[in-house]
Design brief:
By secondary structure, the chain is α/β, with parallel strands linked by helices. The chain folds into three domains: 2-91, Helix Hairpins; 97-211, Rossmann fold (3-Layer(aba) Sandwich); 244-318, Alpha-Beta Plaits, CATH 3.30.70. The protein has 13 helices and ten strands. It has helices at 2-19, 24-36, 48-95, 108-119, 131-136, 149-154, 170-183, 199-205, 213-226, 228-239, 263-266, 268-272, 308-318; strands at residues 101-104, 124-128, 140-143, 162-165, 188-192, 209-211, 246-251, 275-280, 286-288, 301-306. α1 crosses α2 (24-36), α1 runs antiparallel to α3 (48-95) and α9 crosses α10 (228-239). The radius of gyration is 34 Å and the shape is rod-shaped.
């Protein structure tokens, strides 16, 4: 707007001096020096009308220049202030989060991870170095290099429950894994590996699980080819809201009602309605379709299926 006003004023001034008998070049030169108030002498003698016109042009020119500068400064300051205030509000929201998931990398994999986690009602903080991609992130997001410890701290890694390294390269995911493990030795870290040969390195760097999207995709395609109904059922139970039943993992706390009891004596099925499909020991070993005489111990994970209310009742028993 301000630049347009200056252009119009320059055009009017040039036309005015042309009417006063100036050559086109001298008319433009006289207009520019007058609006700029540089103090040069007139390029051609001015009549009384020319002097009046020049005075009016000076007043309008100075006013337009200052107005244009004001608009530019205001836009600059407002833009910076909005960015600062927006960043502070985001940092305040992140500071209030606990038990959230930090997703490093807002690409195709990162977006899908965040979408599924958010659909389960868990908070997500996205970290990406690309400002345009961060601007498209829904919810909380941090602009910065995820391999930088300070950036991970801004994402609230000290209070997070999971760190997902889903950057574009395995090397970057390796750095994120190392940083995350150094900052939080107890944090669950999930890393993406584009190359199968990177998986052992990521595990040695501290990742709890390594996922190769291409391999997982191939396995799912093979499963659909061989057992489509089973895969569809698991998808519905795990991800779809159309079925009432859910699969969940429940941790048995020390001193809970379940700690030290057998599956039969705990009456999990009668008291909650949930069905225990498997028991996982702290060592990581699975016991599927457990015997009723299986003893439940603190630290074990119960893989159970049931409705939301049934699973909540099971969690209450396990606490």
């Amino acid at each position: 707007m301000g630049v347009a006003a200056l252009a119009v004023l320059t055009l009017v001034g040039t036309l005015g001096y042309l009417v006063l008998g100036f050559s086109p070049l001298n008319a433009l030169y006289q207009t520019v020096t007058t609006i700029a108030t540089v103090g040069f002498s007139e390029v051609e003698p001015l009549s009384a009308a020319g002097k009046v016109f020049t005075m009016v042009l000076i007043v309008l020119g100075v006013g337009t220049v200052f107005w244009t500068l004001g608009v530019l400064v205001e836009a600059l300051v407002e833009g910076e202030l909005l960015e600062v205030f927006g960043r502070r509000r985001m940092e305040q929201r992140i500071a209030q989060l606990t038990d959230h998931v930090v997703v490093c990398g807002w690409g195709r994999v990162g977006r899908e991870v965040a979408a599924h986690v958010s659909a389960k009602g868990k908070a997500v903080v996205v970290v990406d170095v690309d400002a345009e991609r961060v601007a498209t992130a829904s919810g909380q997001a941090v602009l910065g290099d995820a391999t930088d410890d300070a950036v991970l701290r801004r994402a609230g890694i000290e209070r997070a429950s999971v760190l997902v390294a889903a950057l574009a390269t395995d090397a970057a995911n390796l750095y994120v894994t190392l940083s995350g493990r150094a900052l939080r030795p107890d944090l669950f870290i999930l890393a993406r590996a584009r190359d199968e040969s990177s998986a052992p390195k990521l595990l040695r760097a501290g990742a709890d699980r390594v996922v190769n999207p291409q391999r997982i995709g191939a396995q799912r395609m093979a499963a659909f080819a061989l057992q489509p109904s089973v895969v569809e059922f698991l998808d519905v139970v795990m991800h779809d809201g159309t079925l009432e039943f859910r699969l969940e993992e429940v941790t048995v706390a020390p001193g809970s009602v379940l700690d030290g009891a057998t599956l039969r004596n705990s009456h999990v099925r009668d008291r909650t309605g949930a069905l225990v499909l498997a028991v996982r020991a702290p060592s990581g070993e699975f016991l599927t379709n457990p015997d009723p005489q299986t003893v439940i111990c603190a630290g074990q994970l119960l893989i159970a299926i049931g409705t939301v209310s049934q699973l909540e009742a099971l969690e209450a028993l396990a606490r």
